[in-house]
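U., I forgot to send this yesterday:
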Amino acid sequence: MSTPNSLEALDALIAGFLAGATPFATLESSYAPGFLFLPEEAFSDVEAEVWYGVVHERIERTAPDPSPEAKQYGWMSVDELRAWLEEAVRIKPRLPR
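Result:
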């Protein structure tokens, strides 16, 4: 999969993961460069940049089987990330494009 180069591509990556079509390893390796290298103009406002940034941080703090100690520091499992993302997408603010 190529690096996402738009918010729509990041959304498609998230949707694919939630649908089970995109494995976590692909989400993990593709989301960060896609998010980090988007130009500032890609984000319609600060709220959009923050939302995608929080998703990035959550993905970065996900592991297949985090230890109890890691969980104390905010790490989550892939299943926990999926549940969190389902809720995050559901309550995602409508962002102008």
